[in-house]
Amino acid sequence: MAKIINANNLTKIYGEKETSVTALDDINIEFRENEFTAIMGPSGSGKSTLLHCLAGLDRPTSGKIFLKGNDIATLNDKELTKIRRDSFGFIFQAFNLIPTLTAEENITLPASIAGRKPDMDWVKEVVETVDIADRLSHRPNELSGGQQQRVAAARAMATKPEVIFADEPSGNLDSKSSRELLTFMKSVVEELNQTIVMVTHDPFAASFAGRVVMLKDGRIASDLEKPTQEEIVAEVTALTNA
Amino acid sequence: MFGFTKHPLFLIAWKNLKTYPVRIFLTTSSIILGVAVIIASNIFSESNKSAFDNLFSGIYEGIDLVVQPVQEEFAQGFSGDGGQGPISFEVKKIPDERIQEIKNLPGVKDAWGEVIGFAQFIKIVDGETVLISNGFAPTFGTAWDTSEYANQWTLIEGRAPTNKKEVAMDTVTAENFDFKVGDKVTVLAGATPATFTIVGVADSAFAAGGATFALFEFKTAQQLLDSKGKIDLINVVVENNFEVNEIKNIITDLDSENLNVIDAQEAAAEQANSIKQGLDFFNTILNVFAGIAIFVGAFIIQNTFRILLLQRTKELSLLRALGTSKRQIYRLVISESLFMSIIGSGLGIGLGIGLAVAVKEGLQYFEFGLPDGPLVLTSEAAITGLIIGITVTILSSLLPARKASQVSPMEAIRDSVSTPRRKSLFLRLVVGVAVSVIGFVMLFGVLYEFLDIPNLSGLQQVGFGAGIVFIGISIITPSITKPFVFLFDKIYLAIFGILGKLATENSKRTPRRTASTASALMIGLTLISLANVITTSFKAQAESLISEVILADYQVGAANVFASPGIPTGLAEELLELDEVTKLSRTRATVVGYNDRPLILGAVDETVFDLVKTDDIAGSRNDFLNKNALGILKPTAEREELNIGDEVTLTIPEEGKITFVVSYIFDWTTQPPAEFFVLLENNTFFTDESLDTELYFNVDEKTEALENKINAIVDGYPGVEIRDEDGLVEEANNQIQLLLNVIYGFLSISIFVALFGITNTLSLSVYERTREIGLMRAIGTYRKQIRSMIFIESSIISIFGAALGTGLGIFFAWSLIQTLADEGFTVFAVSLSQTMLWIGISIIAGVIAAILPAIRASRQNILDAISYE
């Protein structure tokens, strides 16, 4: 599989001098097309920071990030915004949707702000995949938490992005909704050929991914291919106790 | 600093304010402005009053008594008000032998006469004759006082005039129009202009306020100013060892029927007062606008308080969680508002002083001729400003404080920014509609004559009704915000795409806030469009009236009725010599006695009835042509109970009693020049007079060549102005426009205050949507687009406020004009361009107000918005 996004010597330091914290410590990592990757690690391991830097939401202190070979770490705000809009999709833990817009308007929002007509055939396919076709005219406050996250997932896919970044997407959901959402995400990768990078601290959520990367103290501790939930739990325990 | 800050809650309040100076500024900005306008207007008028008092008491320094002729009741207005009264009345004078007589009295150190009349400087600029005057201020001629005790005029340059070829001039005129000692200058005094040499430039308090002065040698002044052998008043200085009152009585006894002796200081106060009255009017206007600023300010303070408290929900709820009672929170907020109001009012007083200096400098710049003097801030004014500022601020903070005290201790623990609970707007709608209906009933009750509230005039009832309608609509606005914004939905979506949709949706989200922000703008726009429509209607009215009643092609009159005695008769003769002049009518006027009262008798040519619109009431025009025939205006006939055939005996100056027969009663549809009329050619005492008051004439065809010919003739008579219909309309319009511009200037302050409200509301809106905006940025919205969204949102608020205000203003103006229909106001006209202009200004103002919140929104840190850890 072709690599789609990779980071070289990525370092992120917060704060100044004595009070500084190294969130990412010289990380080298690559993500391949049509792969569902979970990034795990204990609190403060730098997993969210890694996602933010990769997604162009935050800037690394040093190092390079390549999207299909083009360095995006040096782009200005406007260029970076355009990349987020056209090449990335996002699912956050909560507050994914604009409350004043309907589900459909939320899904097509990235296309709307780009001034483009959304590809309605594709949108229809995505909406059916995440099973929210009957809720399209509802506003977010009329949807359940699980439905809201599925709308967010649909929005993330609507522009056919290169990569979808998900930050604890199931963090606020009950176990049933959580399972549903993760199943959809998995099927999106398998059936619609999308690429997902997801941050989670939940081994159950990570078990849906084809690859699990463990972070500790801003470094990559391990990189597992197709681990089972048990293997993930064991790895997390080992890391926590180490 | 404050002893009571030792109390923990006061301490928190005080610390809060110290930590957030911007917060103080935002909240108090409107109070600062309102207090500033009050203070400035007060300083302005107080300073001028004291300056005028000083000046006039300076003028009369050294003088003990002033001897005035006893004026008949009707002429008092003329001598006492600086020449603002009608000039047609005959003013009594004192024979100049009296000066010597008084001077010879024992105990009188010196006595000298004063002569005052109309005289106007003329300057030739590029071949054009320019009559010199400052706006509507009068132009005076007077005698130079030679007494060593005279203080009225101080020579700045040159010397006093000593012969009939010399003149001195006031400094303001000399500076403004670039005259120097040694220059020749033409002065129009009486019928014919004459040339003089300027020998001196002098200064006096009299010249303050814009009046121009030509000072002549005493005898020359008497001759030029229609005072041969006479004087207008006598100044008297009493010997030190004599009682002033004793001398006063002795002089009065000389001729108690005709002489009125008053103390010089009394005369000074009288003169100062007459000028101060004019300034009082200006002061009243300023205070009205200060009131409007404060009223708009109260809206905004309340709004801002709500906003700031909402932003501090967490902090307040933490205090609640730690065991602070609701009552204590309430007190905390009130004490904060107390601190803010003190600071705001204090800053307002400071700004007011600055504003007063600016106004004074501004007027000085435009050569308004106000006296120099220190700015006076009375303690009363400062205290009034403080009390108003503090009261309004605290009252406006009561409701927000109550709301803040209701905050739940749970809020502190919750993560998200809470949106306020939405109460139903239904009750509000019901109350608002009820109030509006009461107002409408009062208003339409007058217009359609079904309700007449006792003790209120129709105009007052309409005014109160309009006020109540305004309050009712203000209550309703939150309920109509959604339907109103709904109108924008499609249009904004079409123009701005998804950003337009987001902006419209957001305005609907908090209808109360959108409405109260728009209300602040609504107040200003209501007043502006009211003023606009009323003046536009008056203009249209004037236009139709002028074309309806002036049948003549041209009208000739005095350029400045306060300055010029009339039109030399030679002008009418010269015009009649032109072949193209087909018809000409002269009008003259004089004061006559009727039943021991003064009345103006006018003399006209027969042709006047073809040139000015008159309506027959009784009798006939033909009978008016008879000898001894008298024409009377309808209102006069009614008042005097005169009918056709009645005999009327008039006392004519220098002629004695003449008896006329009432033969014609009519209406003169423009401003009539007199109440009684006779035919000019039948009455020799009129034909002997040397001045016409007005000329009307027709020409066979209006051509440019003819116009030039006529202008050339009129130019030979300085002080005379010729107008055709367009000129009359333009003149009327200019005066109305000037007034309108002044009103606009002041009302702009209320728009300015409303701007702060929009800024505050949008700031809160941005704050509340921290996550939303962060999310939009994360998924690829440009900063520029975020800014646009805020600007669009602001435009909705300003269009809402402007549309409501403009609508109400037009409606109120319509009601007012309907009410005045009986007074002759029949035309209702709306200037579309002016209306659009002000709506445009409001939108631009709204966008300007949105700049800061928009920048803030676009710079929002994305990670802060989307992070949860």
What can you see in these coordinates?
Chain A is of the alpha/beta class. In chain A, 36% of the residues lie in helices and 26% in strands. In chain A, α5 runs antiparallel to α6 and α6 runs parallel beside α7. Chain A is globular. The model of chain A has no long low-confidence stretch (mean pLDDT 89). Chain B is α+β, with helices and mostly antiparallel strands. Chain B has 4 domains: 202 residues, no CATH class; 212 residues, no CATH class; 228 residues, no CATH class; 154 residues, no CATH class. In chain B, strands 16, 18, 19, 20, 21, 22, 23, 24, 26 and 27 form a 10-stranded mixed β-sheet that branches. In chain B, strands 4, 5, 6, 7, 8, 9, 10, 11 and 12 form a 9-stranded mixed β-sheet that branches. The longest helix of chain B is centred in the first third of the chain and has 48 residues. Chain B starts with 7 loop residues before the first helix and ends with a helix. The N terminus of chain B is likely disordered. At the A-B interface, α2, β6 and α4 of A face α14, α23 and α26 of B.
Largest interface: A-B, 37 and 28 residues
Widest sheet: strand ordering of chain A: 6-7-8-3-9-10
Count the DSSP helices of chain B: 26
Radius of gyration of chain B: 34 Å
**CATH architecture label of chain A:** 3-Layer(aba) Sandwich
Query: What form of chain B results from the Cα inertia axes?
Result: globular
CATH class category of chain A: Alpha Beta
What order do the helices and strands of chain A follow?
Answer: EEEHEEHEHHHHEHEHEEH
